[in-house]
Description:
Blueprint: H1 8-14, H2 19-29, E1 34-37, H3 44-52, E2 57-60, H4 64-78, E3 83-87, H5 88-94, H6 96-105, E4 109-115, H7 131-136, E5 141-144, H8 151-162, E6 169-175, H9 176-180, H10 201-211, E7 217-221, H11 228-241, E8 244-247, E9 254-256, E10 264-265, H12 270-277, E11 282-286, E12 310-313, H13 321-332, H14 356-366, E13 371-376, H15 384-387, E14 394-398, H16 407-417, E15 423-428, H17 429-432, H18 438-445, E16 449-455, H19 460-468, H20 476-482, H21 491-497, E17 501-505, H22 508-520, E18 525-530
Parallel strand pairs: 1-2, 1-3, 3-4, 4-6, 5-6, 7-8, 7-11, 8-10, 11-12, 13-14, 13-15, 15-16, 16-18, 17-18
Antiparallel strand pairs: 9-14
Helix pairs in contact: 2-3, 2-8, 4-6, 4-16, 11-13, 14-22
GO molecular function: acetolactate synthase activity; flavin adenine dinucleotide binding; magnesium ion binding; thiamine pyrophosphate binding
Domain Thiamine pyrophosphate enzyme N-terminal TPP-binding: 18-121
Keywords: Thiamine pyrophosphate
Amino acid sequence: MTAALPDAAARAAQDPPNGAEVLVRTLLANQVDVCFANPGTSEMHFVAALDRIEGMRCVLGLFEGVVTGAADGYARMADKPAATLLHLAPGLGNGLANLHNAKRAQVPMVNIVGEHRQGHKATDSALTGDIEGIARTMCDWVHTCSSADHIAQDAAAAVQRANSRPGRIATLVLPADTAWTQTRNRQPVVLAPEPPTLPSDQRFDAALKALRSGENTILLLSGRALRAGALEDASRIAQRSGARLLAQYANGRIERGRGRVVIERTPAPVDQGVAAFRDARHVILVGAKVPAPMFGYPGKPDYLMDPAATLIELTQPSDDLPAVLKELAARLGAADAAPLLQPEAPLPLPDGALTPDAVLQAVSALMPQQAIVVDESVTAGRAFFPISRASAPHDYLQLTGGAIGDGIPMAVGAAVACPGRKVINLEGDGSSMYTIQGLWTQARERLDVLTIVFANKGYKILKGEMANVGAGTWGARAEQMLSIVNPEISWVKLAQGMGVEAAQATTTQELLRLLRHGLAMQGPFLIEVQLA
Length: 532
């Protein structure tokens, strides 16, 4: 009697898997279960593996900057990496600006970049490029897989590196033949993340000496030191020592609002930044960089601190920042001190002209509990921080690297990471046009994102910078490079064309009505605010 032939599923289980299948299984085994993708020919076996193997959520972006920006926003909220899938050197190049922002936000990310079949690069065909060279400009770990038998180990190493503190970007280059070739290694590899560290006693002692000196001391925070629990320990230190808490200007995520610790950011304008540090005799860095303005200006300093002040770098990148603050509080004898929390305070709704501050007041008053605010409003939203101090508890995500075009994609990633929370994207009109395609992804994935576009019809930040750098007045040709009129852009039509419900607000009352609608509904909604 002849044995029955196995069905297709049984044959697939018996056949050795190809490299792409092992890669997907390894990512899943290492808790990477979201892939933001913009694939091409070289990645088709990986796409097929994603289709065959359950467990990976695949999210298509219509431009690689949307893909990398979404992975940035996802990691900020999930505290673990997503994978990106990018096509050869040009695809990786298209995603670099938001990889820059992600690196500055110190997030974990694993990029899978397809490459030509090994040997084909000798032909120098049209899409050939130096993928590793491009990746090294923004990534902490770069490796090209040389064999299907190595994929499991290589992928696990990429995730391990991404998960190392404070969060790093790893790029695995995947030649097409390593993806389609069968491998003898069926099992995924799992590597434990590198353990976080704590500062040496000498670093703690230097910080304690400053805190006990009685002199003006600033505790400058960033990274995971800006989470709610860590901020409470920082506040205990401040209450016991008299030190002042300050966040660096650009941060990946801050947990703030009523019932949480009050903390201000370093001002962006250089003169205000210098004033913030003028009286400080000691500056203790916890996850933060040496305070400096974003640009160099004629006759202005390159650093914000008084040169005579003492800089104390308490932490290193590998340190566990919440644990550092808890230990510092204990060594200071401040563990029992009460943190200073933001009390309830009235948040009146705006009335009058539809100005940027009116928009910020409306959002601050109406935002729901545990909203996620993604801020790429640049100049229009600069007052959001003080205006929203007593808003409902929320997470604040901002543009970290200064490369505009991260806001809409970041909102995509945050919404994928936190499906039960409303995402509010404060978006500049000029910035939005870099990655406007992200609205299509919001529509396809039915993401709960409210986008507010400040339509001031120009790059207002650059008009201010013309004066700051001493370039003086400008005429019609310069104005053409700083404004986005003639023709005017309709964000309502752009959003509707990509499947997102949208409307325009020209008065404060229209804005309030649309805000209430957008906050109450599920799914993406865009408000184009025509500013007075």
